[in-house]
Inverse folding.
């Protein structure tokens, strides 16, 4: 044994260097592969050989594993911080879209349309019988209602896109769960006899990282079985999966679009979300700002609907009792879906039992006014508010006269002045949140979207910084450095050549010993 110990030691070095070279080559080949972790050869000294009277003779090296270079703590941090990043990125992107849609300040903003409308009323108050001024009032009012309609439909589109995003993310979660389950099975088959499936584990970790951005997950591995849970409920249990299911519910703001809700496929259990893209999509889509809920698209739709309802309720309450040209009276200014006063009156009577002519507009606490207000609340929305058919059909129906004034009533502007006063009525929005004048209400909406968008942007930036630092540390440990690998190749190449040189030397020694000794003198 001792005679061949040097040869055995050199061969072990040769094999070790060869495996190290192959591993370095594998690292270089995958330097740009997403999710790849740098691998390294782990070796240890072979058991030494006891030489009597001499001591322990080293027997070279043995490669016992090729492992991934990973930091489990950083992996845990990535999984935990990835979900908040996904949530706030979704919220920031969606709220930025909503903020740009309101487009304040600009020539096409809500407040500009309101200004133009009331300016046209002020011009009409100067010369109530002037046809161009009356036409301007109608056009500015029509522009305001059209802007409300368009903005509401834009919000519906955003909600629809978010709803599609929910369905897409649920499908991605189920797909990732299946892929992780399949990889678990492959990894288990390879590692059951002690080997390590490095590349398969990298692929699994990559999927886990993508999944962790969509939904808050927890991972664990015990007895060589990998598990993924969401909110305490198992999504992947080694080779088994529990999928998520989509159910549809009615959308109270847009009946044409059913909303997707998420639950577990088994047991009809709701999905408990703490963070992630899916949570961000659901909160932005459904958040109505009530209680502790998020202020999402539903919140802004509701605010616009409140604005439209109050505009119809309060403006018509003043306009209905006024008189226009040619003694036209008892006409509505705003309505919904371009209904004229007769249609409005018919629907009001059917729904509440109160005729429009019986409503006491001077007493908002009366039952008749309450019925009128309730009817508007149940029927008027930002997407259907319009000028009444009476105003659209004839400019004469714009009621500028507060009371019958005989032949001189044509230049009476008292009713127009009352309409203008509504702009500064601190009780225009008397039972909503926020309250105050129309301008106060609009400023509150714009302030909300600006604050929410700014907060989401800041949270997204903060999480980006956190994830950047974690990823940087992770890459410094697990990432492939081409300079380092090239240096390793040179080192392992020299080791390989040196081991080969030792074998050549031993070969020469044995050649001389076996074939040449004793030849002298023959």
């Amino acid at each position: 044994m001792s005679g061949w110990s040097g040869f055995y030691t050199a061969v072990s070095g040769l094999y070790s260097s060869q495996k190290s070279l192959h591993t370095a080559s594998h690292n270089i080949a995958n330097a740009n592969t997403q999710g790849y972790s740098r691998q390294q050869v782990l070796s240890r000294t072979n058991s030494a050989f006891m030489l009597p009277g001499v001591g322990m003779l080293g027997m070279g090296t043995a490669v016992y594993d090729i492992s991934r270079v990973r930091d489990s703590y950083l992996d845990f941090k990535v999984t935990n911080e990835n979900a908040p990043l996904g949530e706030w990125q979704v919220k920031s992107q969606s709220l930025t879209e909503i903020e740009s849609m309101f487009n304040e300040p600009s020539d096409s903003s809500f407040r500009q349309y309101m200004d133009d409308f009331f300016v046209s009323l002020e011009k009409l108050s100067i010369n109530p019988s002037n046809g161009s001024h009356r036409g301007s009032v109608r056009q500015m009012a029509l522009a305001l209602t059209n802007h409300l309609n368009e903005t509401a439909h834009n919000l519906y589109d955003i909600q629809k896109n978010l709803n599609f995003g929910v369905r897409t993310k649920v499908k991605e979660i189920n797909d990732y769960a299946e892929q992780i389950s399949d990889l678990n099975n492959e990894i288990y088959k390879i590692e059951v006899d002690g080997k390590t499936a490095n590349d398969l584990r990298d692929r699994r970790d990559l999927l886990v990282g993508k999944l962790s951005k969509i939904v808050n997950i927890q991972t664990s591995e015990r007895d060589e079985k990998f598990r993924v849970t969401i909110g305490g409920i198992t999504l992947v249990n080694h080779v088994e999966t529990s999928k998520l299911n989509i159910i549809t519910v009615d959308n109270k703001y847009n009946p044409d679009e059913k909303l997707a809700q998420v639950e577990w496929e088994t047991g009809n259990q709701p999905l408990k979300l703490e963070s992630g893209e899916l949570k961000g999509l659901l909160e932005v889509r459904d958040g109505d700002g009530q209680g502790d809920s998020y202020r999402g698209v539903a919140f802004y739709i509701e605010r616009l609907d409140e604005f439209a309802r109050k505009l119809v309720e309060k403006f018509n309450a003043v306009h209905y009792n006024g008189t226009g040209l040619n003694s036209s009276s008892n006409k509505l200014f705003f309505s919904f879906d371009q209904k004229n006063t007769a249609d409005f009156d018919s629907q009001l009577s059917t729904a509440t039992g109160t005729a429009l002519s019986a409503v006491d507009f001077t007493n908002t606490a009366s039952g008749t006014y309450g019925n009128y207000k309730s009817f508007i609340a149940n029927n008027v929305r930002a997407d259907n508010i319009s000028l009444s058919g009476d105003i659209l059909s004839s400019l004469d129906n714009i009621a500028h006269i507060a009371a019958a004034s005989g032949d001189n009533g044509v230049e009476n502007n008292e009713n127009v002045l009352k309409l203008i006063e509504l702009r500064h009525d601190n009780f225009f929005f008397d039972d909503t949140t926020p309250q105050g004048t129309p301008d106060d209400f609009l400023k509150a909406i714009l302030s909300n979207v600006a604050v929410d968008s700014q907060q989401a942007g800041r949270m997204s930036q903060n999480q980006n910084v956190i994830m950047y630092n974690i990823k940087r540390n992770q890459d410094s440990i697990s990432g492939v450095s081409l300079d380092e690998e090239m240096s390793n190749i040179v080192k392992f190449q020299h080791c390989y050549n040196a081991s080969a040189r030792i074998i050549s030397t031993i070969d020469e020694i044995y050649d001389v010993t076996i074939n040449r000794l004793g030849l002298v003198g023959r």
The two ends are 32 Å apart (CA to CA).
